[in-house]
Design a protein that fits this description.
Number of domains: 1
Structural class: alpha+beta
Strand order of the largest sheet: 1-4-5-6-7-8-9-10
Low-confidence stretches: none
Distance between the termini: 25 Å
Radius of gyration: 18 Å
Oligomer: single chain
Helix content: 25-40%
Number of helices: 12
C-alpha cells in the first residue's frame, strides 16, 4: 500500500502539529489546490474562504485551544498559512455554502462490536489522504484523515471507535466547531461512548454530520448532529446494527434537511443495506466489509467515479475502513470494498 502514513508522538499539541505538517509538506499544497478549485466552482473566492476559516479557527480555539494549536502546528510544519490549514479543517462547513459542489456519499454499518464503512469523496482528492498514529494526547489515535485535517474516522487506545458521515441541514454554516475537528477531539479525549456523547453535546455546533460511536464495553450509538441539536439513535432491535448513509434519522430534523443533496440516493442505499442485514449476519470483519460491495443495478454503496462528469461530480470510494474497538484496531484499504482480497489492508493498532 503506497499511501502516506504519519506517526507523531508529542505531549505538546503544537509540536504534534508541526510533526504532522512536516511529514505531509509535499502533499498539503496539492490538497489546498483541489479545494480552491472546488470552492471556486461553488462561487466561493479565497477571500471569503479565508474569512470563513478564521472564524472557524476562533471557534476551535474557544472550544479546545489544544486543537487550534495543533492546526497552527500543521501549518507551520507544512509551510502554509494558518488560515489555509483552517480552510482544510473547515472544508465541510465552507463547502456547505455551495450548491454547485454537493457532498459525497458514505455508507457505514456497525454490527457485533465491529464497524465498516466506505469513505466516498471527490476522486481528485485521492492522492491527498493518509493513515495516522497520533500519540501524546489523552489517548493514542489511529485511523484515516485528509492531508492537513486533524481527524476523521478511527479508534483510540481506550477502545472507542468512530465512523463519520456527512449530513446536510438548512442552517449549516461556519461559526461552530467543524465536524472534522470535533471527531478528532472525541477520539483524542473520550474513553467511552458516554464520554464521547458528552463532548459532542458540549460543542458549539453550526454544521451537520453523524458519528457512529461504539466501544470495547459494547455500548453503541449513532448521532444525528445538527445546528439545532444532537439526537441519539440506538442499534436496531432486530439485528443489533447501526446503519448510516447521508440523511437524518431523527424526524424532528428532516423538515429542514437538504434532502435534494442526498435523496433519493441516501435512502436507497440505506434500504438496500437494511435488506442485506435481513439475511445471514456476517461473522467476521471481512464479511461485514464485503456487505458494502455493490454492482450494476444496485445502489452505489461501492462508488466508482464517472470520468465523463466534470469537477465536483466525480465521486469515488477512496477508502474502505473497518474498526474494532476491542482490539483497538483500524484497518484501512486504499480502494473500494470490491478490492478486498486483491488489495492489502493497512492494519493500525492504538497502543496505550
Amino acid at each position: 500500500m503506497n499511501r502516506p502514513h504519519t506517526t507523531v508522538d508529542a505531549v505538546d499539541p503544537h509540536e504534534r502539529g508541526v510533526a504532522r505538517g512536516a511529514l505531509l509538506r509535499d502533499g498539503i499544497p496539492g490538497a489546498l489546490d483541489v479545494y480552491a478549485r472546488l470552492l471556486a466552482l461553488g462561487g466561493i473566492d479565497l477571500a471569503g474562504a479565508r474569512d470563513d476559516a478564521e472564524r472557524a479557527l476562533d471557534a476551535i480555539g474557544a472550544f479546545r485551544p489544544a486543537a487550534r494549536a495543533e492546526i497552527a502546528g500543521i501549518a507551520a510544519g507544512a509551510g502554509v498559512e494558518e488560515w489555509q490549514a483552517g480552510v482544510l479543517n473547515a472544508r465541510t462547513e465552507i463547502l456547505a455554502r455551495s450548491t454547485a459542489v454537493p457532498p459525497g456519499e458514505c455508507t457505514t454499518v456497525v454490527l457485533g462490536g465491529i464497524g465498516a464503512q466506505t469513505w466516498d469523496w471527490h476522486v481528485e482528492l485521492r492522492p491527498y489522504w493518509h493513515t495516522l498514529e497520533s500519540r501524546g494526547a489523552r489517548h493514542t489515535v489511529v485511523g484515516l484523515t485528509e492531508h492537513g485535517i486533524l481527524g476523521k474516522m478511527g479508534v483510540n487506545s481506550a477502545g472507542l471507535a468512530l465512523h463519520f458521515n456527512i449530513l446536510g441541514h438548512l442552517r449549516d454554516r461556519v461559526g461552530g466547531v467543524p465536524v472534522h475537528v470535533l471527531a478528532a477531539t472525541v477520539l483524542a479525549e473520550a474513553g467511552s461512548v458516554a464520554e464521547a456523547v458528552a463532548i459532542v453535546r458540549s460543542a458549539p455546533l453550526a454544521s451537520s454530520g453523524s458519528f457512529a460511536l461504539f466501544d470495547a464495553a459494547g455500548d453503541a450509538v449513532l448521532l444525528d448532529i445538527s445546528p439545532v441539536g444532537v439526537h441519539e439513535i440506538r442499534p436496531d432491535q432486530a439485528t443489533g446494527a447501526l446503519l448510516r448513509t447521508n440523511h437524518f434519522l431523527t424526524p424532528a430534523l428532516t423538515a429542514d434537511e437538504k434532502s435534494w443533496l442526498y435523496q433519493p440516493d441516501s435512502g436507497e442505499r440505506r434500504a438496500f443495506m437494511a435488506q442485506r442485514l435481513q439475511g445471514e449476519l456476517p461473522a467476521t470483519v471481512d464479511a461485514l466489509a464485503a456487505l458494502l460491495v455493490t454492482g450494476d443495478g444496485e445502489p452505489p454503496v461501492t462508488c466508482l467515479p464517472d470520468p465523463a462528469k466534470p469537477l465536483g461530480q466525480r465521486w469515488a470510494s477512496l477508502a474502505t475502513v473497518t474498526l474494532d474497538p476491542a482490539g483497538r484496531t483500524a484497518r484501512v484499504l486504499d480502494g473500494t470494498p470490491a478490492d478486498i482480497g486483491t488489495t492489502p489492508w493497512r492494519v493500525l493498532t492504538a497502543r496505550p
